[in-house]
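Handout, section 4.2: multi-component inputs.
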Amino acid sequence: MQNSIQAQANVKTMSDKKLFHIKSKHTLFLMALPFLVLVFIFSYMPLYGWIYAFYNFRPGIPLSETDFVGLQWFKSIFSNPTQTGEVLRVMRNTVAMSSLNIAASVLPVIFAIFLSEMRSARFKKTVQILTTLPNFISWVLVYSFAFMLFSVDNGLVNQILINLGIIDAGVNFLASDSYTWLKMALWDLWKGLGWGAILYMAAIAGIDQELYEAAKVDGASRFRSIWHITVPGIMPTYFVLLLLTIANFINNGLEQYFVFQNAINKDQIEVLDLYVYNVGLLGSNFSFATAVSMLKSFISIGLLFFANSLSKIVRGESII
Amino acid sequence: MHKKLSAGDKAFHAVNYFVFAVIALLCIFPFYYLFINTISNNDLSSRGLIHFFPQEIHFSNYGQVLHIPGFAHAGLVSLGRTVIGTVLTVGGAAFLGFLFTKQEMWGRKFWYRFIIVTMYFNAGIIPWYITMLNLKLTNNFLAYILPAIVSPFFVILVKTFVESLPAALQESAQIDGAGYWTIFTRIVFPLITPILATIAIFSAVGQWNSFTDTLFLMTDQNLYTLQFVLYKYMNEASSLAAIVRNSSGGQGLDLANLQTPTSIRTTVSMIVVFPILLVYPYFQRFFVKGIMIGAVKG
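Output:
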């Protein structure tokens, strides 16, 4: 009742403003238009390029002069044994490295739990600052670090291992095809552990301190408090981030793998994004690479919707 | 109020301190290791004999690597894209985020989603490359700037921030007859500087660290960035060391400060990471704030 009276009162003032609104709504749109055009150009126009997947496209030749081949490239992914093998190998690498990253996603949680148990605020802060730093350097620099620390003739790790008598000659850690997936996951961890823990630290700081005091009064040990108060307190945060990781399961990017790639580890390190780059831009097989990346886009949109509906079921709200 | 610690607690804290000290050390050690190698005797460093402490300290490497052809120019390109790119990204995010808080905008919800969904899909490298090619943005400095102007995540940050401001401030200005542009520049912009600082830092770090766009789009050496030349130098360090040795004439240089592949790699790396190290301690809290605000929106 009260609302409707208020609404009537509003109508009056609204009608005064109406003229202003009609004019202003287009002004606002025109102000935003240049930015919308930029988004259209750089994010939507490339979608048109998907038609290259249906042509026998060669760079430099206009599309109108190239042959329309229909689904040939898509079929060849599944029917041409060499290409099927390649795509399977690349998929295996992608899935393996994404799975390792998902497995490692509990480590920032553990990191945050134990770090918040520390009593010295200064120590906590220092650890956070130092462990977050690697997140802000590029993969090229990480590669440079790796090169310096692990190179075969003068790398620190080899020098120390030789001095200690553990090995006789330098081990070539970088140009090697063993444990590639694990090594990549470890570099990912080195770069992202501290950064990943920040959100969890904040979630833990938001837990009601009275819960801990009550638990203490009841005689709960430190680990019981962690298990029954801290862990449930940060589960929602962990779950959201996990869903986002699942949504990005096959989008593991190419920068890291590109800089660490060499002739020896190529078979293990080539993930989908890197493969598309290698085949498309370096190998000039534009059409086939586009077909592969189109399939990738569809799978990844499917995963996004899967993660989103999982989120709706479990948390009652969506992540996108 | 220091309570007495039980033996178990003491052991817990001891282990905890130790483990975190080791983790922190592992994170920071590569930076230190690289640095001591740039200032040590180049001969010892190239033989891998500098482990934990610098020896025979000298700083001549930093002057000498500037003799690498194109290196200083790459520094300018990196600096240019970082400064120009950051200014435009911040400006774009601020203005667009502000506009999207205006309920009366024509098609506001649609256009907002039009921008936000681009966070969740992309056409893939090849179609994107061909688009850039058709737009004449390969081998073009603008390719570093234009695609960065609208960043959906930053637009969300600004919009959320503006919505948290008291509406009365803007309304009173509107009644006084101020247009949107005046409201934005005079009232909103000064109030949102905290979030803009966060965005500026993220954007600057992103521009400085960006590598793949040069890899995909640029073949003209005049457009190479520091990150890209570092990657190239990693593989070409031996020949570059020779070039630098020749160009500095070798006067007054002995084995201790003659360029070696190792000194080239480490010194260039240090120069590339230096700006990050410089701003990081001051801006660390902005980074944390940024990730927190982003998380609230989800």
